[in-house]
Amino acid sequence: PAAGKARIAARLKRSLPVRGPQAPTLSELMRWYCLNTNTHGCRRIVVSRGRLRRLLWILLTLSAVGLILWQCAELLLNYYSASVSVTVRFQNLPFPAVTICNINPYKYSSMKDYLSELDKETKKALETFYGFSEGKSKVRRSADEWNSTESDFFQQIPLLKFEDFSRTVTDLRSGQKRKIEGSVFHKDSSIVNSGDSNDIIGFQLCDANNSSECALYTFSSGVNAIQEWYKLHYMNIMAQIPLETKERLSYSADDLLLTCFFDGLSCDKRHFTRFHHPLHGNCYTFNSGKNGTILSTSTGGSEYGLQVVLYIDEADYNPFLVTSTGAKIMVHDQNEYPFIEDIGTEIETAAATSIGMHFTRSHKLSKPYSDCTETGADIPVENLYNKSYSLQICLHSCFQKAMVDSCGCAQYAQPLPAGAEYCNYKKNPNWMYCYYKLHEKFVKEQLGCQQICKDACSFKEWALTTSIAQWPSAVSEDWMLRVLSWDKGQKINKKLNKTDLANLMVFYKDLNERFISENPTNTLVILLSNFGGQLGLWMSCSVVCVIEIVEVFFIDSLSIVMRRQWQRTKKWWNNRKKDQSGKLPQAGDPERQGHDNPVCVDEDLPTFNTALRLPQASPLPRTPPPNYSTLRLETAFTEQLPDTLELGQR
């Protein structure tokens, strides 16, 4: 009975037209889908009469599908977009840290013993090239005078005079002309003629390990050439002086600060924290937060900010190292390192400088919205400054690390990495050439630091507005200078000059804190809602329709393809077995296709709906019913009545 049932089911399956997911071909599957789907356009393609109308519905449906795909792609591409919001709040604001440095890093009177040889050679160079001398007539020195004194400085970096940008140079020490080779780098963009000729001045740096590898650095201004040459040797000397000695040679808080007021109250050097800057000597930070307390202000205006009078002492400036007079200041966060050499603001002497501030906090979204870093922990560069991460800290630390790896020593202007030491001639005779070549790669972004370092996601910014007024005024100059001289009389033995003083005021212009933040434009809920809106607008489709499309176009279509492939494979295998056994194929066993193929037949019995569509077939043999006489239909009368006969005749 079981075998007969299976044979009957197989025969019924072969006789029924197969539709739906069990359709034998892709065309039948697509036709079934179009007739049964909830998306209206697909159904109209099948039921429409006439080729033109059917073609029109095909074009409309394909256009709607294209629009859906385009709009959904735009939604996905814009998913990681951010909107910017600006919030303004009025409240008590924390006062920033204010770092103040004298432009002259060290007292020249204290540094003369260390710089005497360098200053002497610099004066000789000025005398030879410009005829400059102190207390003597301006007569150029001869070459014999240069040869009489051997200079270590000019042996390391000889100053050269270039003739009309050619490679013919004159050595200022020997006076001899010669041809030189090497890459030429012009450090100035504008041409400034010096003296009574069209010559320019510069110097040559060569690789100590390969004398044929040289670089020529030329300057259109002799002032810039002398200063650059002086700074190179100056850094070499300062790198060999201990930090404790350099702090003693620079300005103390008592030297720099004359008066101090904050928020209408008097302050003094106890409110300032000293730190030593390699290029600016001792600098002093007001409200550094080192003791755990950060001052705040509750009122805007110049009367409620920081007011200091600085003693600049112009007479003790290094004449070759700095050419301007005054101080440098920087407003920054307590956790931020003050790169005063890069973004410091200069204030001049004999003037009152007012700096008004606007405070802004900014926060950007990190990945995947932008390429910024929250804390810098994901940046493979060691922070050498022990301050919160910033792009400048990363760039300077990256360059210093490359300097140590390439040149074997650290550049003087930046902090020391662990286990490294600053460059000097005695231990690193090749450091200047190496430094200039490395800096050239850094500027051209070939060192990789600009690619590694990223902006910080959160940062604070104080927008500064600077105004300057003459100070002290002509009518108050006499008494103010006398009083200030008396206040400082215990430390200096001279009357102050207004060119030695600078008045500084730093204050909030208002107490409005501006907070700029980025917020995600899209969320997952909004994205799904937008998808649903596009599907409903163009195809009258829902999520269930999408699932149906996935099932039909991917799962069922793949099933049909795999079924056909399995059919071919099985046929090939059967033919191979027959060939091996030598048995010829039977004539009554034709190739079966589609729903006639047994591979396509499963063991499921036909349903009621499919049974209604069974074709008319010959009746199957069955057991006849019992021959009971009671089941026959017989009339109740054996004869027809006479009256009914008459009716029949009528």
Automatic annotation (TrEMBL):
Catalytic activity, reaction form: Na(+)(in) = Na(+)(out)
Keyword entries, A-Z: Cell membrane, Disulfide bond, Ion channel, Ion transport, Membrane, Sodium, Sodium channel, Sodium transport, Transmembrane, Transmembrane helix, Transport
Principal localisation: membrane
Gene Ontology molecular function: ligand-gated sodium channel activity
UniProt KW Nucleotidyltransferase keyword: no
Keyword Transcription regulation assigned: no
Renumbered residue ranges of the record's region Disordered: 577-603, 612-631
Localization annotation: Apical cell membrane
InterPro entries: ENaC, ENaC_chordates, ENaC_CS
Sequence intervals crossing the membrane: 55-80
Membrane topology: Multi-pass membrane protein
Any one GO CC term of the record: sodium channel complex
Family: Belongs to the amiloride-sensitive sodium channel (TC 1.A.6) family. SCNN1G subfamily.
Protein name: SCNNG protein
Organism: Centropus unirufus
Lineage, broadest ranks: Eukaryota, Metazoa, Chordata, Craniata, Vertebrata
